[in-house]
Amino acid sequence: MNALRRNVLKGATGAGAVAVAVAAGLITPTRVLAAPRAAFDAKNLADAMKGMGLPAATDSKDIVIKAPDIAENGAVVPVEVTSSIAGTSAIAILAEKNNTPLVADFELSGGAQGYVSTRIKMGATALVRAIVTAGGKTYQATKEVKVTIGGCGG
Amino acid sequence: MAEPMKIRATMAGDTADIKVLMNHPMETGQRKDAKTGQLVPAHYITEVTATVNGAAVLKAGMGGGVSKNPYLGFKVKGAKAGDKVAVSWVDNTGDKRTDETTVG
Description:
heterodimer; A: 2 domains; six-stranded mixed β-sheet; three-stranded antiparallel β-sheet; globular; B: Immunoglobulin-like; four-stranded antiparallel β-sheet
């Protein structure tokens, strides 16, 4: 195990090596990603959705996205997702027009409620989409956020 | 190198309200340096895990689309005052950090 560990540390300078090590389960904390890493690199919404490997989502009124209608600064857009669907096990947040639309995904377990709150960057006015997995089914909701200054470019 | 996180966990009824503020530049790799015109290399948190008394409650994957110095809020039902909350992250360069607090 120790020799293996050395190799991992040596190889850890490149992000690729880290990804491989994570895939092999060598780095702690280990996890099985709800969304595979590739989904985060997807350049458009369709690819990101496909990358997550989720079945087609149905719209749900039980998901509430709390985000500003107009964000003055696209670099910091507070987003809060509350899902009152029973058995919510994962929540993903996507900003549709970002260069890489998938922003974050959250896997909930051990008493964690269907709620996450974070801050995201948005390159342009776009829909923020929340995708919720509950009991093997996929639900979604969207909310438009108008961005006056983008937060993704230079 | 990694700066410590700020974690706050408070009870609201039977649910612990946990708020985490991580210290991280979260560079997407798409931004250009204003002076040199060179792309700033990507440097962002890819994974965050949170445990309450050692049991996993949240596993998050992140991309470069999360804001600088990421904030994360979540709620855990059934937690009690005095429970130990640990949060750790790993970034795309392999850097990592773990911090702990107790539910107050």
